[in-house]
Design goal:
The protein has about 290 residues and is α+β, with helices and mostly antiparallel strands. It has eight helices and ten strands. β3 and β4 form a beta hairpin. It has a four-stranded antiparallel β-sheet with strand order 1-6-7-5, with no helix packed on it. The longest helix has 22 residues.
Length: about 290
């Protein structure tokens, strides 16, 4: 799933390649993709694209007086093309969900792999009209997101810290991969209760959040849109690396599987050398 660093890189890419171009056609190609109907997609045609904003994992492209907003979900992606095929795409065929064609040639496709179609597109007058954006918590890279603001989010939270970091209503933009990376950097168990952190642990976790995301954004800067997925994977230390050696201590990275996802961690770095039981409501094995 694209998370804050990749979506931020896509925002920068679109600001460079799309801003100032005129939209010629917008073609919805998957029944499930469009979540709004007023204004219609056709209202974007003939309008000039402006700046692209990021809201958590949402992209909001200003086109004329409207905004084309998308959430790429787990398996979605934005594919830029300098030249689009002459033949119009067929709806319902393959991963293509929506195409934006530009005057003078080129444009981009929104694609989604797999059978779970969760990619979402909205046409709105204000991005805050999108429910998922309206409920977002603070952006962890915003200037005003200081240690005190982070500590306030954790206070009274009886949930495990892994789930808190992934909750978009608490903090915007962090998903499964970067929550694993942040917790590894902070040397914290993913199952530790958020409210149980002492002052020093809150500081270490806050610093890990900011450092991990900033470094990932820096790695993604200047990377072509089509190469961002590979760049993300290459920069991960524990997520997706079950069975590999931890780059910090050399212990074997382990995994906990859930119904539709999994987390990865290092026992030596994060859980005092004890493995976590592989079940949803697991606690440390005794």
């Amino acid at each position: 799933m694209p998370e804050l660093p990749e979506v931020e890189a896509l925002r920068e890419f679109l600001d460079e390649h799309l801003a100032g171009r005129v939209v010629e056609r917008v073609l919805p190609l998957a029944v499930s993709v469009l979540k709004t109907y007023d204004p219609p997609l056709g209202a974007l045609e003939g309008q000039r694209a402006g700046a692209t904003a990021r809201h958590g994992k949402f992209l909001a492209i200003r086109i004329g007086e409207l905004h084309l907003v998308t959430h790429l979900a787990r398996a979605g992606w934005l594919r830029w093309q300098e030249t689009l095929p002459d033949k119009p795409p067929r709806p319902g065929k393959g991963p293509l969900a929506l195409r934006v064609a530009l005057e003078g040639g080129g444009g981009f496709d929104l694609t989604e792999a797999g059978t779970q179609k969760r990619l979402a597109v909205y046409v709105v007058r204000d991005p805050q009209e999108v429910p998922g954006i309206a409920r977002l918590g603070p952006d962890p890279l915003a200037e005003g997101f200081d240690r005190a603001a982070f500590a306030a989010l954790l206070a009274g939270e009886r949930r495990q810290i892994k789930g808190v970091l992934r909750d978009q209503g608490v903090i915007a933009g962090i998903g499964n991969a970067y929550s694993d990376e942040i917790l590894h950097a902070a040397k914290v168990s993913p199952f530790k209760l958020a409210a149980s952190f002492d002052e020093e642990q809150v500081t270490h976790l806050y610093e890990a959040v900011r450092r991990t995301l900033r470094e990932a954004v820096e790695r993604a800067q200047g990377v072509a849109a089509g190469n961002l997925k590979a760049e993300k994977k290459s920069g991960l230390r524990v997520h997706g690396r079950d069975g590999e050696p931890c780059p910090v201590c050399g212990d074997t990275v382990r995994s906990v599987s859930f119904a539709d996802s999994s987390l990865q961690y290092c026992p030596t770095c994060q859980t005092g050398g004890k493995p976590l039981a592989d079940r949803r409501l697991s606690r440390l094995l005794k």
